[in-house]
Amino acid sequence: MSSSNLHVISHPLVTSKLTELRAHDLPAKDFRDGVKSIASMLVFEASRELPLAPVPGLQSPISEFTGYTIPLRIGLSPILRAGIGMTDAALDLFPDATVLHLGLFRDKVSLQAVEYYSKLPTNVTADLVFLLDPLIATGGTAIAALTMLTEWGLSQSQIKVVSVLGSRVGVQNVQNEFPDVQIWIGAVDDELTDRGYIKPGLGDAGDRLFSTGTK
Q1: Which UniProt keywords are present, listed alphabetically (predicted)?
Q2: What angle do CA 208, 145, 45 make, to 5 degrees?
Q3: pLDDT tens by residue, 89-144
């Protein structure tokens, strides 16, 4: 699964926060806060190599100076519904970003992704899109979302997948289908259950974010 486009962020803060998220009895509020914290760190890391353009002629309280800005139109594409849990963290870093919601759910029998919503404008409105998906389990949902974004008009190099956690097979499936897309992820677990859940994983991220799981 080695690839120059796969970035597993083994930072102590990410690893310790992920340990908290794995606990089955973590309250929904704490789960939401944890996902947001990890998302912030992942998007920060995924932004490390963005280009900068000089802005000359600025004035500090002391003197004139040349500043820098990111000369790209940034898009954030959360996969509904769990991707909502990562959106505010990304918007904190890119407050002027376009938010491109994609509605996909995984059929519980076939484990295939089913599209039900897309908020992509007619014309491409971003130079770089961060695809926000907390979990890459089988990889089917991420692959479906990437297909939607590339059919919209983006190249693979214009998309960065940001995920809290993935399975080894799921991440590999995404890499096989979209080898030029960068994946920034907090950790990769080795196993999937026969129901398509990452093991040990986090459970269903959407249910845990929004308290809709079985009590």
Answers
A1: Allosteric enzyme, Glycosyltransferase, GTP-binding, Nucleotide-binding, Transferase
A2: 70
A3: 999 999 999 999 998 877 666 667 777 778 899 999 999 999 999 999 999 999 99
Count of domains in the chain? Answer: 1
CATH classification at residue 194: 3.40.50.2020
- Residue 84 within any structural domain of the chain: yes
Token duo for residue 127: 């130079």
The verdict on whether omega for the bond into residue 200 sits within 30 degrees of 0, i.e. cis, is yes
Whole-Å CA distances, 19 to 31, 127, 128, 164, 165? 11, 34, 31, 11, 11
The verdict on residue 62 lying in a domain is no
Residue 177 sits in which domain range? 6-50+69-210
Is residue 24 in some structural domain?
A: yes
Condensed to tens digits (0 to 9), the pLDDT of residues 5-51 reads 999 998 999 999 999 999 999 999 999 999 999 999 999 999 999 99
- The whole model's pTM is what? 0.92
